Amino acid sequence: MIDVLYFAWVRERIGVPRERVETRAETVADLVAELCAREDRYQAAFADRQSLRVALDQELSSFDAPLAGVREVAFFPPMTGG
Amino acid sequence: MRVAVQEAPFDLGAEAAAFAAGARGAGAVVTFTGLVRDNGGRLAAMEIEHYPGMTEKAIASIVDEAVRRWALTDALVIHRHGRLGADEPIMMVATAAPHRADAFAAAEFLMDYLKSRAPFWKKEIGADGAEWVAAKATDEAALGRW
């Protein structure tokens, strides 16, 4: 089981801020493919990978990163702080 | 060094005065404050979302990097989240250093990195709907100068 968090318009498209996901995905990209195969709302959120960022256990990472040992995955648009 | 991520407003004058008073050994203090732009009166409110836990860690590591690069005696970052009105202070940065060049450069570095490496997302609420603020290519490019 892995905690998956969504922020900003990714959260709005998926409809929940976080969920626990049962997965055997080996990489972030595999997890995204699994989610997209479930329901259209995931496809709507993940359609444009270029406009998404991912963090693994609260550190910025990449879509080809392995998920082994990871407890928390977060997907969000490019940040707009300051 | 202090990092505060908070919903509550902050008192810019009091924070700047306390920071300067505590900046022993410094010859220069620089402060920067970001305000909510009213977009020519069209903005009703701004909502700022963040990633509790990661936001604090990301800012702390940006501050650590600034301390490695410049001769800072102290640094402060306050960043708000939640619903803010036009003209309200969103965030402030303060740096203290023996000389002003380090204090100015570190403050600009902190601002550039806070814009695109600290997990905050801004949504502008207007009279005719709400829109997420898109990240600018110029903000990403600004990191290249460091």
Please, could you describe this protein's structure?
- The complex is a heterodimer of chains A (82) and B (146).
- Chain A is α+β, with helices and mostly antiparallel strands.
- Chain A is built from 3 helices and 5 strands.
- Chain A has a 5-stranded mixed beta sheet with strand order 2-1-5-3-4.
- In chain B, helix 2 packs antiparallel against helix 3.
- With 146 residues, chain B is of the alpha+beta class.
- Chain B has 4 helices and 8 strands, in the order βαββαβββαββα.
- Chain B is globular, with a radius of gyration of 16 Å.
- Classes of the chains: A alpha+beta (82), B alpha+beta (146).
- At the A-B interface, helix 1 and strand 4 of A face helix 2, helix 3 and strand 7 of B.
Layout of helices and strands:
The complex is a heterodimer of chains A (82) and B (146).
Chain A: E1 2-6, H1 8-14, E2 18-21, H2 28-38, H3 40-46, E3 53-56, E4 59-60, E5 72-76
Helix pairs in contact in A: 1-3, 2-3
Chain B: E1 2-6, H1 12-22, E2 28-35, E3 43-50, H2 54-69, E4 74-80, E5 82-84, E6 89-97, H3 100-117, E7 120-126, E8 129-132, H4 137-142
Parallel strand pairs in B: 1-4
Antiparallel strand pairs in B: 2-6, 3-5, 3-7, 4-6, 7-8
CATH-defined fold name of chain A: Ubiquitin-like (UB roll)
Number of domains of chain A: 1
CATH superfamily of chain A: Beta-grasp domain
Task: Please indicate the percent range of residues of chain A in DSSP E strands (runs of 2 or more).
Answer: 15-25%
CATH topology of chain B: Aldehyde Oxidoreductase, domain 3
From the N-terminal CA to the C-terminal CA of chain A, the straight-line distance is 34 Å
Major pleated sheet of chain B: 4 strands, mixed
Q: Count of DSSP E strands of chain A?
A: 5
Q: Work out the helicity level of chain B.
A: 25-40%
Number of helices of chain A: 3
- Mean of all residue-level pLDDT scores of chain B: 95
Q: From the 3D coordinates, which CATH architecture of chain A would you assign? A: Roll
Quick check: average pLDDT of chain A? 96
